Amino acid sequence: MGRMKYLITFLSTILIVCHLNAQELPKAKIVHKDKPAEISYPTGKIDHTKFSVTIIGSGNPQYNSHRSSPSALVQYNGTKFLVDMGNGTREQLEKLGYTRRNSPDALFLTHHHMDHNEEFIPMVHQKLMMPGEFLVAGPAPIKKMTDYVTEFYREDLQYRMKNKGQTFNEDKTNAIIKELQGDNSFSYKDVNISTTEVPHSIYTLSYRFDANGKSIVISGDLTYTPHLAKLAKGADILVLDCQVIRKGAKSKRPTNASRNKKGNSAHASIEEGARMAAEAGVKTLVITHLSNVNIDEVATKAKIAEQFKGTVILAQDFLTITCDGKVFMLQ
Ligand SMILES: [Zn+2]
Ligand SMILES: [Zn+2]
Q1: Secretion signal: which residues (predicted)?
Q2: What is the pTM of this model?
Q3: Which of the ligands is closest to the CA of residue 291?
Q4: CATH of 45-330, one of 3.30.430.20, 2.70.50.60, 3.60.15.10, 3.40.50.2300
Q5: What digits encode the pLDDT tens for the residues 129-160?
Q6: Which residues surround the ion ligand 1 when the cut-off is CB under 5 Å?
Q7: Which residues fall within 8 angstroms of residue 145, CB to CB, at 6 or more apart?
Q8: Mapping DSSP to helix (H, G, I), strand (E, B) and coil, where does residue 75 land?
Q9: What is the pLDDT of residues 187-238, one digit of tens each?
């Protein structure tokens, strides 16, 4: 009889558990503080004869379901330069069809903050397995980082390449490494690249790309500096780390909160951003490194227009801007 009582209790427990599982459980409420940008652009495809920049990630270190972490893809004549590769970069590239076989030819880093280099390791790993050279450039210790990937993943790379009937030679890889400091100028394929140091909370470089009489500048993270204005002089497009105005904001708190060694914001204020764009005399200013806030686009543009009279665009992931003035969402 005791056994029967035990069996009934056991079966009742199972029935109760099954019933509870079958019930509709309350759904977790996911709140996205940010909303997609209000301007919608037409879609388009890359014309390889045009010089263009595609925003791969327009966000910052905060998780944001609408914005990947900082990354920009500069393209000219079939050559692809990826500048910074924060969280989400590989997924974004795959969405655009930049798969392993069609991946960027050059990997550039502006600085070694996690939101800019988090996906450097998988990008290098991917390139080490592909035929043909690839260029890696950025501030120290970029050589150490690249060598580390080669060494740490040696066995993994050997295994994967053996599966493809190839061998991995760790002493002679296909990576060309350029460790950069301060002002530099060098060419890769038919594009000239220049750099300058800019102020941030750690050592940071800005990049200028020149091809066929046109130019694109990617600032990386920075505060005001005349060096950026000098580097970006007369550029067609300047992609700039710059703060924005929140919708309905009473607070004057910066939209990028990190601070430099002196305790000041480590990112350009809206006034500083407008000043650099105006001093450089660029045609189009693309504001990026955007926070997880509702942006008042009208107020932001009005504030910038007090100093800068050119075109102002708020970055969105996949937004593509060409040096001849076309703006579209890359498909
Ligand atoms: Zn950053
Ligand atoms: Zn940074």
Answers
A1: 1-22
A2: 0.87
A3: 1
A4: 3.60.15.10
A5: 999 999 999 999 999 999 999 999 999 999 99
A6: 115, 221
A7: 117, 120, 121, 124
A8: strand
A9: 999 999 999 999 999 999 999 999 999 999 999 999 999 999 999 999 999 9
